Amino acid sequence: MPSGYIPGALGLALFVVLVAAAKLAGGKVRDNWEHGIGLYGLGLFLWGQYSGLFVAPREAMMGDVGRILYVHVPAAWISMMAFTWAFAGSFGSLMLQAPQQLPKILGATGAGGALGIAAAVALDGTPRKLAAFFGVLLVLAFLECLVLYLGHRFFGWDADSADHFAESSTETGIVLGLLLLFLGAVFAKPTWGTYWTWDPRLTASAIMVLTFVGVSLLRATVSDPDTRRSWVSVATVIAYINIPITYMAVKWWRTMHQLQSTPNTLDSDMTFWLRVNAWAFLFLAMWFVARGWRIAAARAAAEAPPPLPPAREVAR
Amino acid sequence: MSARPGVIRQALMVAQKDLLIEVRSPSRVVGLFFFALALVVLIAFTADASPGVLRKTAGGALWLGLLLASTRALDLSYAVETDNDALSGLVLWPVHPAAVFYGKAIANTAVLALVGTLLTPLVVALYSAPIPGGWPAWGQYAVILGLGSAALAAPGTFYALLTTRARASSVMLPLLMFPLVVPALLSASRATTLLMDGDGMGEVPGWVSLLLAFGLLHWSLEGLFYGSIVEDS
Amino acid sequence: MVDDLSRRFGQRWAVARASFSLPRGEALMLTGNNGSGKTTLLRCLSTALKPHVGTARWGGVDLWEQRAACRPKVSLYSHASALYEDLSGPENLRTWARLGGYEPRVEQRLAEVGLELRPEPVRTYSAGMKRRLALARALLKEPELLLLDEPFAALDPDGRTLVLDLASRRRAAGTTLILATHIPEEAAKLCDRRIHLESGQIVEVA
Amino acid sequence: MIFATGGVIVGGWNFVWTAYGATWLVLAGYALSLWWRGRKEAR
Fold first, then answer.
1. Nearest Cα residue in chain A from B212
2. CB contact at 8 A, B119 and B66
């Protein structure tokens, strides 16, 4: 079996080419480039689904039921990925409220991240873990700010467009998340004999989806666009940061009740088909998010404020 | 003219003001207490009435009652501010937004802890769930009660402002807040149940530290973001 | 001082292209019908609202951008009294004074607006008494810029004289006043200039 | 249609088809909804 990363690498290369083409060519290409990545994702999806059903080997313990993994696991990964995008968009929206600050923040996070990583290399024990944790966090913040800065410079991103990205990502995450919960139930019935297992991952996912449903309802409630943007950004950031602690709590709660967990010993063929399907979900999700982004932007343009009325003669 | 007080002193003053209001209209805390009590009693009806099972549900019932009572408490805490738009008055005075947040969160913590304290003997009696282990166990219980109230109060104070400002229906607050406070609810109720039902494996400290981590995360995050919600944008 | 200031609510520009300047220590009267933008303009000046276009400056600094520094210098007295209904009048004043770091001097301040030291909660006060108490609260601040939004509403003739009296005393002490009202006759004695607003725009400066 | 023999699950294709069918339905439905909303906004 070839490496499961090849279809992904090809797709990501295609993505870069398409974005560059959209930037350079403009016009029709600029407004429709994402269909390329969507079609590639659809191709991978057809291939991966057919293979998952008929080509991939039977799982050792679960038999054919194990084939559900090829839709269940990608749905889990990519819904999580979509919520990560939502977080990145909302964080970006908060950052882009003052884009002139970005170079300064880039310097600070870059230097801090480098310092943290250096400290992690030099130190030992708990200090090393702490330094590594904060170092990686700062490096991630640096990368995010770099992307924001480039997007702001070359693609005209602002707080609003970042928020539109967060909006469509949240929506995609919720759709995939709800699918994931349904698939979890379908998977649980034959393997564990019940439709719902309080498996930590499944439980945490359910809570995560609920949290983001709340956030998107908040978006629907607030009518003023500026207020909506800043509130939803903040709510998304909080919802996302809360995920790890929810997962920890649920996991802890469950391990005390001893429950079987998902088998993770897959042979290499299965890993390959799992990856193909995961890439397919990823590229399809990219198409969803890109389309949703355009729709949100178009709607925002429609509700844009009217121009200022002309100045009036002032009597003195 | 004396100097303008700093953020911490302003926060304490806001908390003091909120608590003074609670003292002036005690019917509100009493109402909250009976609301929570009704829930605790109703949960007992829906659970299996055998003492062993009841004891295992006691912690969950207590914290569920407190969580639901907290939504009422939070609505009331902002009703006071919105009656005459005192909240804008605070921001323009100017009281630092973080001071408004921490002040109100402290006051809400105190109200929840008080309701929890009043509820405790009744839960112990109704669920036949005494806390064995003497004073050390009661000390742990007090810590759990305090930390749990604080863990509910911070996201509550934050999201109640959102829903008040959005003039959203009262359904919005639970929708936003409940999924978020799952870790706090889980750890507080597990720790309480373990205290009542016996902690063979010594798990209580673990749950308490999780509660503490949750509290720290939310008290810092939401204090940071409160300004961007309370100010016009 | 105010340059091209505009603020919208939803799809409507509540204030559009408002520009004027006011020397320190002078008093300005805003007139106009309901919905002409007086309140919005005052709320922008009080830094409660962020202008969507244009700027308002006070003493050379942008009011919104430097709002933390400007807020102690600006006070807004409006129908939103910012009083806590469950607390008594003295308790309200004491709370607000402490929060701002001002001398409470509660008895004196209450006397200034014609109220007595009473222990009842504010919710038992009449509308006029609440207005008087709110005025006492707004004056706690000793601001450089005092914004009065409909200061005569719900007040008896005595109360109106009181407002005028207090305002003119402030003015004599160097405070700049901006006053929005439907009753220009009352305020005319106090004000040097008048700006008339019509559907959010300044149409007359006198 | 599930037989567990020696801990190994045999059969269960109905669950597999349910899972795959649900996935296709949801993804296709969401794609359609995006396409539809996109057209509505374009107008």
1. A245
2. yes
